[in-house]
Amino acid sequence: MVVVPVERIDWIESADNYALIHEGRNTHILRETLTRLELRLAQSSFLRISRQALVNLACVREIQQEAGSHHMVLACGAKLPITRGIREVLAHVEAD
């Protein structure tokens, strides 16, 4: 079992009853739903941006708008679609 400090996690991806923890170039698999992880990380700087992704706001580089859709670009280079309310996401990003 690998222990990854929360601050080193870039983003977390849903895979049914598993979560893929993205940390730099490494990906770790955890048997936990994204919803449960979201609750556990509620006091951290993580935000749910879609049904599939929970991001560490400290890793956000920019938000891009393309043809009516929005994407969050992380420092690690990942480009994730934002499907939750964009105003809510922007408010959280600006607050951090």
- Taking all residues together, what is the mean pLDDT? 90
Give the count of structural domains. Answer: 1
Tell me the strand percentage band. 35-45%
Number of DSSP helices? 2
Rg from Cα? 13 Å
Enumerate the spans where pLDDT stays under 50 for 5 or more consecutive residues: none
Overall form: globular
What is the helix/strand order? EEEHEEEEEH
Q: What does this protein structure show overall?
A:
By secondary structure, this protein is α+β, with helices and mostly antiparallel strands. The protein has a single domain, classed as OB fold (Dihydrolipoamide Acetyltransferase, E2P) (Beta Barrel), CATH 2.40.50. It contains two helices and eight strands; from the N terminus they run E-E-E-H-E-E-E-E-E-H. The strands form two sheets. It has a five-stranded antiparallel β-sheet with strand order 3-2-1-5-4, covered by helices on one side. It has a three-stranded antiparallel β-sheet with strand order 6-7-8, with helices on one face. Strand 6 and strand 7 form a beta hairpin. The radius of gyration is 13 Å and the shape is globular.
Please give the structural blueprint.
Elements: E1 11-15, E2 18-23, E3 26-30, H1 34-40, E4 46-48, E5 53-56, E6 60-66, E7 69-74, E8 79-82, H2 86-95
Antiparallel strand pairs: 1-2, 1-5, 2-3, 4-5, 6-7, 7-8
TL;DR of this structure?
The protein is an alpha+beta fold. It is built from two helices and eight strands; from the N terminus they run E-E-E-H-E-E-E-E-E-H. It has a single domain (about 5-95), classed as OB fold (Dihydrolipoamide Acetyltransferase, E2P), CATH 2.40.50.1020.
